[in-house]
Amino acid sequence: MTQTNNNMTVNPDLAMERAKCNFNVLEVTHIFDGGERNTLQRKKIEDVALNSGASKDALGEEHMSPKEKYENAVRKSCIYATMMKNELAELSGLESFGVSSPVIRRTADAFFKEVSPFLLHLGMFVPTIMGQCTPEQQSYWLPRALDMQIIGTYAQTELGHGTFIRGLETTATYDPETEEFVLHSPTLSSYKWWAGGLGKTVNYCIVVAQLYTKGECHGTHPFIVQIRDEDTHVPLPGIKVGEIGPKMGFNTADNGFLGFDHYRIPREHMLMKNAQVLKDGTYVKVARHGKLTYGTMVFVRVVLVNEVAFNLAKASTIAVRYSAIRRQSKPKPDEVEPQILDYVTQQHKLFIAIATAHALQLCSTWLWESFSAVLAQMKGGNTDTLPEFHALSSCLKAISTSDSAHLIEQCRHACGGHGYMISSGIPNLYNFVSATRTYEGDYTVLLLQTARFLVKAYEQAEAKKPLTPTVSYLAHAFSGSRATWDNSPDGIIRSFQALAAGKTAVCVTNMRKRMRAGLSQVDAWEMSTIQLVAAAEAHCRAVIADTYRKEIVRLTANSSPNVKVVMDQLTTLYLYYWALERTGDLLMFTSVSQKDLVDLQIAYEELLLKIRPNAVGLVDAFDLRDELLHSTLGSYDGRVYERLMEEALKSPMNKEPVSDAYSKYLRPMMKGKL
Ligand SMILES: CC/C=C\C/C=C\C/C=C\C/C=C\C=C\C(=O)SCCNC(=O)CCNC(=O)[C@H](O)C(C)(C)COP(=O)(O)OP(=O)(O)OC[C@H]1O[C@@H](n2cnc3c(N)ncnc32)[C@H](O)[C@@H]1OP(=O)(O)O
Ligand SMILES: Cc1cc2nc3c(=O)[nH]c(=O)nc-3n(C[C@H](O)[C@H](O)[C@H](O)COP(=O)(O)OP(=O)(O)OC[C@H]3O[C@@H](n4cnc5c(N)ncnc54)[C@H](O)[C@@H]3O)c2cc1C
User: Fold this and answer.
1) Record's superkingdom (predicted)?
2) Is 537 assigned a catalytic role?
3) Domain boundaries in the chain?
4) Is ligand 2 within 6 A of the CB of residue 444?
5) Has residue 493 got a pLDDT over 60?
6) One of 17, 62, 158, 440 is an active-site residue; which one?
């Protein structure tokens, strides 16, 4: 593994762990990166972007005021944007800045402990222009956006509605006299709320509003709207815009609010790929599927699976390296205190995080490829695969973000008190990832979208109609007997599928019973939603397990024997872990016995011991440079205590020997003079 400083002194425990590792770390790096070519390209990009030191701050972000933090984030965003235009675009094989790649996104993380105020420009503004504009509109807006002559965001959510897009209240009313749309915020709850970069950074945004023309509402549509002067950056007349205030994370993203007072924009500023308003106000629907205007959200849901895999890889790197250098307690009085990584409970907390990072990384690549295939079909006018893809991307977004947030928090627990320090890097990772569970579609809401699809697929299976690939297992849901338990990887995956099918069947049966008892379809659905969410979760676990296993078998076909073994151990660990988490369900829907489960628990514990010697090698294989980790606990050299002390000494509280608070409050109080 290449490090920036080859002469570093490494903590002896970490050095010992690296000597113990029995597989070729670089080979696993290639698997995680999706091939040797990608690794080489990533390293080149990282070298150019990070070796200059431009990502570093003189004073840690955490010691800055909110205003200083924001300004510093803008400063570094501009440096990074300029690098991307100049050096990085060619290196990454991108034609121009803006069409971001995961590697470019990841490298940017070295510049920000929280996030860039440009995240929404790259993440949603540019993709919406690419996905929702006509070719003419694109040729006008895209070059300006890619060149950062304009900076934009995506303002959909309002104070009153986020989930229920059809309930948005902002109106865009067409005026044929002037050939303009009049944007208006009729109520407080209709104010746009949350859009990243809106508070202070952007001068344009995509606004999602209810379209009215000829007195008729045609539902929500996207518009491109200038909100600040291109020269002075002053908000334009009719625009009320500001920043929404401190949050749990995302504090450098200047999330904002936005209101319109009869604000006029040209007709051409409606994004017209999927629907158009002609000069005379006639509404023309172009798209063959009603939900294509939700396309940017689907894109970001796909991207997020990769994003959280990366953040989980970071958290597990920090926690595993720290657990290798940390020694605590003395279970054997005559021996030295063990590394905390030797505790089986610690391995139970951490190895699933490593395995999940791999599982999600591989699923994200597979999901991206499926997305590309769906997009290619849609280009030819065929939207048949969209419902399945919507169901798939919804559940993968929900489960990947939720599992990653949970496991990052588990990594923090694994680091004891020091994990609670901002300088450990884990709190910022958690704050970032826990938000991903909510934004771009809340966890429960998205799983219920998948459940809709599962119920329909179940009914198709019942009617012996053909099923789409991700739910083909439902065809076996009507055998009448419980699935046969078998603890081989394929056997466990079949059991996960049986759980998903069984849970879906229970939902359908209960809904039908409730409807027979007099409930409406909507109420019967509502009463079953706890189980529907559980069914969608089970379906998603089956998809992840199946994809992870198949991809690892494929990707390690030519690997060296020890790499094959360790990758197989990780996938097996993932399967055992989730089987043991779902023992109740397995007992309900498969033939598993109490003895089978006791045996599985023992096999799981033995697997942890087998993985233990390679644990540091496995996180080294994520190949995350120190600049990306921002962590006192997780650096490659393991100088944990030195770094913790160095960081503590940087605290502005340590600048003066006696705090002003002493003379102002403590002394008067102690002397009875307050
Ligand atoms: C380069 C980038 C690098 C890195 C990126 C890193 C970070 C990310 C970048 C930015 C993130 C930061 C900020 C976050 C931004 C945001 O959060 S933007 C706002 C996002 N908002 C949401 O996600 C709202 C969630 N709500 C919805 O999606 C929908 O409203 C809904 C809950 C799905 C329901 O919609 P609706 O009420 O209109 O529909 P239904 O009546 O329930 O369903 C009707 C049928 O339509 C189907 N459907 C719904 N959605 C879709 C879709 N997207 N595609 C296809 N089909 C869809 C639905 O299944 C129903 O089908 P039916 O069952 O056959 O009837
Ligand atoms: C950090 C961050 C950044 C964001 N950035 C942007 C941005 O740039 N642009 C933008 O437009 N938006 C942005 N958002 C908004 C985000 O998309 C919404 O917050 C998200 O979609 C959830 O919607 P909501 O807030 O309305 O939650 P709500 O829908 O009010 O959810 C609250 C609770 O109600 C439950 N619930 C709601 N509806 C249902 C239902 N039908 N069935 C069962 N349960 C339900 C949910 O599960 C949840 O438990 C951002 C949010 C965050 C946190």
Assistant:
1) Eukaryota
2) no
3) 121-287, 443-620
4) yes
5) yes
6) 440
- CA distances 11 to 17, 249, 471, 479, 635, Å, are 10, 32, 49, 58, 10
pLDDT of residue 142: 96
List Cβ<8 Å contacts ≥24 apart for 506-512: 506/531, 506/535, 507/451, 507/455, 507/531, 507/532, 507/535, 508/455, 508/458, 508/459, 511/455
Ligand 2 pocket check for 226: Cβ under 6 Å: no
**CB of 99 closer than 6 angstroms to any ligand 2 atom:** no
- Tell me the pLDDT of the chain averaged across its residues: 95
Contact 407, 349 (CB under 8 A): no
**Residue 194's closest CA among 155, 167, 249?**
155
Alpha carbon nearest to ligand 1 atom 65, residue: 452
| Model pLDDT, residue 479 | 76
Ligand nearest 193 Cα, by number? 2
Pick the atom of ligand 2 nearest to 249's CA: 1
CA distance linking residue 184 with residue 210, whole number of Å = 10
CB of 402 closer than 6 angstroms to any ligand 2 atom: no
392 CA from centroid of ligand 2 (Å):
19
CA 79 to the chain's CA centroid: 25
Domain 121-287 CATH class label: mainly beta
Ligand nearest to the CA of 397: 1
Of ligand 2's listed atoms, the one at least distance from the Cα of 247 is 1
> Residue 481: what pLDDT?
80
pLDDT single digits (tens) 153-188: 999 999 999 999 999 999 999 999 999 999 999 999
Banded pLDDT at 60 (limits 50, 70, 90): confident
pLDDT tens digits for range 528-564: 999 999 999 999 999 999 999 999 999 999 999 999 9
Q: How many Å lie between the centroid of ligand 1 and the Cα of residue 386?
A: 12
Which ligand number lies closest to the CA of residue 167? 1
Residue 522, both tokens:
């909507």
Q: Is the pLDDT of residue 655 over 70?
A: yes
- Atom of ligand 2 at shortest range from CA of 443: 47
For atom 19 of ligand 1, the residue with the nearest CA is: 440
Q: Which ligand is nearest to the CA of 154?
A: 2
Residue 428 in contact with ligand 2 by CB distance below 6 A? no
**By the 8 A CB rule, do 415 and 318 touch?**
yes
Task: Return the residue matching tokens 């390296």.
Answer: 321
> Going by CA atoms, what residue is nearest to atom 36 of ligand 2?
445
The CATH superfamily holding the domain 443-620 is Butyryl-CoA Dehydrogenase, subunit A, domain 3 (1.20.140.10)
Q: Which residues line ligand 1 (CB under 6 A)?
A: 100, 105, 119-120, 122-124, 154, 156-157, 162-166, 196, 291, 294, 297-298, 300, 303, 307, 386-387, 390, 439-441, 445, 449, 452
pLDDT classification of 100: cutoffs 50, 70, 90: low
> Hey, what are 562's tokens?
């020890």
Find tokens 């999600």 and name the residue.
Answer: 360
Name which of 51, 25, 206 is nearest 130 in CA terms. Answer: 206
Tokens 């000829």 appear where?
214
Which residues, including other chains, have CB under 8 Å from residue 240's CB and lie 6 or more apart?
A: 185, 191, 257, 258, 259, 260, 261
Q: What local confidence, expressed as pLDDT, does residue 568 receive?
A: 98
